[in-house]
Amino acid sequence: MALAVGIRGLTRSLLRPWVRVPGPARGRTEPAAGGGDGVRCFGSPRVLVEPDPAAGFAVMKMRNPPVNSLSLEFLTELLISLEKLESDKAFHAIILTSDCPGIFSAGLDLMEMCGRDPTHYAEYWKAVQELWLRFYLSHLVVISAINGVNAAGGCLLALSCDYRVLADNPKYAMGLNETLLGIIAPFWFKDTLVNTVGHRTAERALQLGLLFPPAEALQVGMVDKVVPEDQVLSAARSELAQWLAIPGHARQLTKSLMRKPTADRLLKERDADIQNFVRFISRDAIQKALRVYLEKLKQKKT
Ligand SMILES: CC/C=C\CC/C=C/CC(=O)SCCNC(=O)CCNC(=O)[C@H](O)C(C)(C)COP(=O)(O)OP(=O)(O)OC[C@H]1O[C@@H](n2cnc3c(N)ncnc32)[C@H](O)[C@@H]1OP(=O)(O)O
Predict the structure, then answer these.
(1) What Gene Ontology biological process does one annotation of this record name (predicted)?
(2) The complex's ipTM?
(3) 211 Cα to the center of ligand 1, angstroms
(4) Ligand 1: centre distance to CA 252 (Å)
């Protein structure tokens, strides 16, 4: 099985960085995230970046409709956007949000984990690992403005940020609900949750596959602030001011001090974790459970 799948190679083959943004933003100048004028949005088909270099941050909008499921292409585009912002000294922070109404992210794309071959599973899992590592350890301040329901891998992405603002809508539950699908959150999903909400809350949440509505998410510390839906972005921006006022090197080193041991656990066992995932997801019983879950999602419409 080819485990040495390079995300950078994948990146190069998938898309040219900074393709023109399709859809409403294409080719026109939009007001920048922080209100500055004349700054051009950039991005890729599934990720729209609204930069405000004068204010030192960019808003990264996920737009992989209908539910921002984290397909291989989408993961790759998120990584490219992050890399681009990280390598530009004008940017110190990102606000991560969704462009899909009512949905932050439905988590990992079930179609990537169903009915595919082991090489694909390995490639996909490596990209999932990469996304977590890069967001979790980013030297930028990353704040998520969670404006919709946020399950499993999507929740992991938000938990990897430095601060979370959630829109106050009872439908916008978030959590690591893997057990409801008959699958298991890997140790680094678990560690990220434990680091955020503590061991006891994580233990209960993971076993029961709990999705927390806003008031409960706030109460257990899964999010830092709950605000009216129309204020999610402005609240994230206001919060950012406090983070950007701290000397950058001191904040970055402190972030690394807090997070590196957790990331190192995966870095040390990365290939074994991929092999474990491939073995697990390839099992007939797991494939069947995923198909049943997908079928249920489709049936709820009829
Ligand atoms: C050893 C380690 C082993 C394994 C670890 C694997 C870890 C996995 C972590 C994950 O992230 S697994 C994914 C978990 N996600 C979910 O459980 C969320 C599932 N989705 C939903 O609950 C709902 O779709 C929603 C609440 C997010 C949105 O509801 P609604 O607005 O009513 O949309 P629909 O349900 O009608 O969905 C529209 C469309 O999208 C498809 N879809 C939904 N979620 C996914 C997904 N995660 N991956 C792929 N596709 C998804 C859904 O089937 C619909 O498709 P149609 O073809 O019927 O339009």
Answers:
(1) fatty acid beta-oxidation
(2) 0.99
(3) 14
(4) 34
